[in-house]
Amino acid sequence: MSLHLYVDSGRWRSHLRRFMEPAGTTIVPVTKGNGYGFGNATLAAEAAALGAGTLAVGTYEEISDVQKEFPGDLLVLSPWRPWHEFAVDDERVVHTISRVTDLHTLIERGGGRPRVVIEVLTSMRRHGIDPAHLTAVADALQHVSFEGFALHLPLVGDHLAEADRLSRQAFDTVPASPRTLWVSHLSAAAAGSLAKHHDAEIRLRVGSALWLGERGALRARGTVLDVHPVRRGDRVGYRQRRARRPGSLVIVSGGTAHGVALEAPSPVTGTRQRAVAVAKGGLEAAGQVLSPFQFAGRQRWFAEPPHMQCSMIWLPDDITPPAPGDELDLDVRFTTTTFDHISWA
Ligand SMILES: *Cc1c(COP(=O)(O)O)cnc(C)c1O
Fold first, then answer.
1. Is the beta carbon of 99 within 6 A of some atom in ligand 1?
2. Other CB atoms within 10 Å distance of the CB of residue 234
């Protein structure tokens, strides 16, 4: 009796298979963090079943989550740094190098020929070697197994033009490079056109659009643990707030420990968005917060902010409450939710 993820596995897996086959592009599945709600080991096994040659993980620490389930190559997306103690010449691991000095340090660590991709700095300005400085790595690359350039593009703007310009610059500066580009956040069509322009193999690193791209196949539900009738004026919860109307209090599994009702900071840019945020803040200030749980066709209010393992939901008295053991649908943000149980149907 817990926070449950139900997967329509036929529908989900047929989406995965379709997604893996765009013409002229190799899809590199990405799993990291909470494994997009499924867990890294589960997605590693799915990636293996899909026949992926390479699986990307976020960090060196995540390699141990996936190495048993996935037999192929493992690309680490976080750039290698000298303080990482992971063996540099593990044959299955492809390192991302984003600073000139790190390439030299990696080579000095010795032992075989470490596999590396060189990340080129994009307009995102997160990690990467400035394309003007790529001449500084060209010679050193003969000491490693060089597997291509990586570009991590922002989510807005003219991706293709930027990817095109940076790829040209990279291939011109390091002509001996394998013609492989590891890119993120490009459409399959844009990736195909990049492949053609540069006569290159495109490896498209994809997480969300792959694992979460068929939302209708995924359903999150919390189990009702308790239901209490409440009279007007009764005190409830840690905060002992008084009920303003009669109704019922529904205690349902799914709380902050699962990541329920935790929102990632989101950019507020437009005037309208700002007005919405102010309105929401106003309701929150008045002590009312809409929960992600639904019942009888509507999203329901929290009686108070969620607790660690469960939430307290308010229902007005004109609604017949659910019974313990019933389940309520809820909206979750998959990249921050940990489910107690996954059911495959
Ligand atoms: C996480 C990550 C991805 C996958 O991101 P999604 O938005 O989930 O597809 C791709 N590339 C890099 C470099 C990443 O860190």
1. no
2. 15
d(CA 211, CA 35) in angstroms, rounded, equals 9
Compare 214 and 22 and report the one with higher pLDDT. Answer: 214
DSSP element (H, E) containing 104? helix 100-109
Substitution site in 205, 208, 212, 336 for ligand 1 pocket (most atoms within 8 Å of beta carbon): 205
Same structural domain for residues 207 and 229?
Answer: no
| Domain co-membership, 71 together with 204 | yes
Contact 345, 238 (CB under 8 A): no
Atom 15 of ligand 1, nearest CA residue: 77
Q: Which atom, in ligand 1's list, is nearest to the CA of 77? A: 13
Regarding whether 223 and 202 lie in a shared domain, the answer is no
DSSP states of 120-178 as a string?
EP-TT-SS-B-GGGTHHHHTGGGGSEEEEEEEE--SSS-HHHHHHHHHHHHHHH-TTS-
Q: Which two tokens stand for residue 119?
A: 């990340």
Whether the Cβ atoms of residue 207 and residue 32 lie closer than 8 Å to each other: yes
CATH no. for residue 265?
2.40.37.10
Q: What is the pTM of this model?
A: 0.92
Predicted confidence (pLDDT) per residue in 94-107, tens digit: 999 999 999 999 99
User: DSSP label at 335?
Assistant: G
- Tens digit of pLDDT for each residue in 236-259? 999 899 999 999 999 999 999 999
Is there an atom of ligand 1 within 6 Å of 203 CB? no
Name the nearest CA neighbour of 131 among 100, 160, 158, 108: 100
Q: What tokens does 165 get?
A: 């310009």
Domain that holds residue 16: 9-213
